[in-house]
Amino acid sequence: MSGPASTRNEPLPVGLAFTGSSLLQSSPSAEAPVPDPKPFICRRPVRLSIYAFLLLVLLLMLGWRYLPVLLDPTFEKHIQSKRVMVGMSKEQVLKAWGSPYTINVSYTKEGIRREEWIFEDWKDASTIKHRYLYFEEGVLMGGWYYQ
């Protein structure tokens, strides 16, 4: 048996088809299916644009915290407008808001001094507003208030 595609299990070259005892040349353009184009969102330039936009948003979110400190490093504008901000020292908060009504002091296991300052603002004889500030080692870490 000496035919080109006799009983051997060899793969046929691309574009050739075996029918009975002879090999036929098939046209690749007639039978090849047309591939569907990629969806718009899966195209490389679109993906890169989306990734660049998300990276920009992430950098803005991370940098937003430090922007006021860069614009007003000594917090003088904040003190003049009676506002406090994370990163201020106790002296700067005293200049901006005055002295607190109560100071609660505690220490962590590591020996870090934590202070809770409570401010009371009386609106009238029956309405009071509490403001709380939290310090670690003399630096303002955060705060909140009740109305």
Describe the structure.
The chain is α+β, with helices and mostly antiparallel strands. Helices cover 29% and strands 29% of the residues. The longest helix is centred in the middle third of the chain and has 21 residues. The strands form 2 sheets. The protein has a 4-stranded antiparallel sheet, with no helix packed on it. Strands 1-2 form a two-stranded antiparallel sheet. Strand 4 and strand 5 form a beta hairpin. It folds into 2 domains: 49 residues, no CATH class; 71 residues, 2-Layer Sandwich (Beta-lactamase Inhibitory Protein, Chain:B, domain 1).
What is the CATH C-level name of the largest domain?
A: Alpha Beta
Number of domains: 2
Counting helices, strands and paired strands, the structural category is alpha+beta
Any idea what the CATH architecture of the largest domain is?
Answer: 2-Layer Sandwich
What name does CATH use for the topology of the largest domain? Beta-lactamase Inhibitory Protein, Chain:B, domain 1
Summarize this, please?
This protein has 147 residues and is an alpha+beta fold.
Which key terms come to mind for this protein?
4-stranded antiparallel β-sheet; 6 strands; 2 domains; 147 residues; 29% strand; Beta-lactamase Inhibitory Protein, Chain:B, domain 1; alpha+beta; two-stranded antiparallel sheet
